[in-house]
Write a structure and sequence with these properties.
Chain lengths: ~180, ~200
């Protein structure tokens, strides 16, 4: 999936002014947004729909003179709320049995190491399911490279709460996975 | 347990104030316990990334595999319909004595109007009449009459392109056994009509 254009219908005159900005953000954030939402439990179709909706909102936001500050957390927040609106899908992944595709994993230098790595990922997957929703969200956003301040903006919690949540979640995972 | 161990993850993420960052860095150099913990946290973060890749891969695979049952059902249906069409014709024609179909001039097509468009219809009509006959008893005769819509309805009552066909089957004594009046779209004449 390497679509470079924005697959949404927009008035061309509007596109000219902030089109480049939206396109650049789309290229930068589409992959991370998709991964974030799929990891939250959305299907790839649902996630793609949500990403398109998000960038349509971003275009409207910029076209109507919305703030350009913290635009990355703005985009993630809109996408996050869209994912939450699909609550049933959102919860699905963490109630269904763990089904992971580990064959595509990178570290295949030796067969033993590959097996070990797969087992680790599976174990971690099970541990992630034991986390609270907020802990999972914080870790997923952190893994996408968001700062604690940005994560707080996405989830509407304070930066210090994000720090505590991330710390607690990582410690839980480290304990359970015994790494 | 070190007092700074609670700040290790924030340090790892570069989320501490400048002086705190320096403090923790200095502490890690001296404290084996904190260094061990830090390694564990780093390992968890790395495995977490692999986990996300695995989730993405499994969801993409699931999306593909979702289509497999749909496509196989569709293929089965197409095959079943094709088989039905082929075998239906074979079976029915086998039941009918060849003479009644091939040489009997039972398939008479009368047309009351000769619109140029109806040439298509006329070309298909014998085949149609034949299929009608083969579904009936072999000694019956069939007449198919095309009736222009304007001969039955006031102008404008029937949309352009709609025509009517009356199927008559006539018994050996000459009496009409069955009359069927069917509206037809001229544009769709080429399609096999449903019995």
């Amino acid at each position: 999936m390497t679509g470079d254009s924005i697959p949404i219908a927009l008035p061309l005159s509007r596109l000219a002014s902030d089109g480049c900005e939206v396109t650049a953000l789309y290229r930068e954030l589409r992959g991370p947004l998709l991964r974030y939402m799929v990891c939250l439990g959305l299907s790839t179709d649902e996630a793609q729909d949500a990403v398109q909706d998000t960038f349509l909102s971003l275009h409207r936001h910029l076209a109507t003179g919305g703030s350009r500050e913290n635009i990355r957390s703005w985009v993630f927040r809109v996408a996050h709320n869209r994912a939450r609106n699909r609550q049933s899908s959102y919860d699905r992944r963490f109630t269904e049995p763990l089904d992971l595709e580990t064959d595509t994993m990178q570290d295949h230098s030796t067969p033993e190491r590959a097996v070990l790595e797969k087992e680790k990922v599976r174990e971690l997957g099970n541990a992630i399911r034991q986390l609270t929703e907020s802990e999972r969200e914080c870790l997923l956003l952190r893994a996408e490279g968001l700062r604690y301040r940005e994560i707080g903006e996405v989830l509407a919690i304070s930066t210090s709460t994000v720090g505590e949540t991330v710390s607690r979640a990582i410690k839980k995972l480290a304990e359970k996975c015994n790494v | 347990m070190c007092e700074l161990s609670g700040k290790l993850i924030a340090w790892l993420d570069g989320e501490l104030e400048k002086d705190e960052m320096a403090d923790v860095r200095g502490h890690i150099r001296d404290c084996i316990e904190c260094r061990r913990q830090l390694e564990a946290y780093q390992a968890v973060s790395r495995t977490f990334d692999s986990y996300r890749d695995a989730v993405m891969a499994s969801m993409t695979r699931r999306q593909v595999s979702q289509w497999v049952p749909v496509l196989s059902i569709a293929a089965t249906l197409v095959f079943a319909v094709a088989a039905f069409l082929v075998f239906r014709h074979t079976r029915v024609e086998a039941l009918v004595p060849p003479t009644s179909v091939k040489t009997d001039p039972a398939a008479v097509v009368l047309e009351t109007a000769a619109a140029p468009k109806r040439r298509v219809h006329r070309r298909n009509a014998p085949a149609l009449a034949k299929s009608k006959i083969t579904n009936w008893a072999p000694n019956e005769r069939s007449i198919q009459i095309a009736i222009p819509a304007e001969s039955m309805f006031p102008p404008g009552a029937v949309p352009e392109g709609v025509n009517f066909t009356a199927d008559l089957s006539i018994a050996t004594d000459g009496s009409a056994q069955q009359i069927q009046l069917r509206p037809r779209l001229i544009e769709f004449e080429r399609r096999t009509p449903q019995p």
